[in-house]
Design brief:
Structural class: alpha+beta
Low-confidence stretches: none
Strand content: 15-25%
Largest sheet: 5 strands, antiparallel
Distance between the termini: 21 Å
Mean pLDDT: 96
Shape: globular
Length: 113
């Protein structure tokens, strides 16, 4: 598990995927800091790592990355940490379209495709 602050390659993500789930890498994005944690077994583990580094929970969103898939389908908004009924997010996805765009921007800045 590691925190990504600078660009990483799809090849690096693919290596991570092959070691764990085969085709995906779990990630948690901090939309305020523009960083993400990757390569954890659970989104909750990555969330805990970022919280330990002074991230705020309301800025953290769980996603899955599929390095071998081209196009927009390579990023999936699905994580238990996204369930936040008190904040208006009532699903494992990311209901707010503007927040989805922020997450995509961070991912695109950090992953070289």
């Amino acid at each position: 598990m590691k925190i990504v602050k600078e660009k990483i390659s799809l090849a690096e993500l693919q290596t991570m995927a092959e070691k764990t789930f085969g085709d995906l890498v779990k990630a948690v994005v901090d939309v305020a800091k523009g960083i993400m944690a990757v390569d954890g077994e659970l989104h909750a583990d990555e969330e805990a790592l970022l919280l330990a580094e002074s991230s705020k929970q309301e800025n953290l969103w769980g996603i899955n990355l599929y390095p071998k898939i081209a196009g927009d389908d390579w990023l999936e908004f699905d994580s238990m940490i996204n369930l936040r009924p008190s904040s208006g997010n009532r699903s494992r996805g990311v209901d707010d379209l503007a927040m989805r765009e922020k997450i995509k921007q961070v991912v695109n800045q950090l992953i070289e495709r």
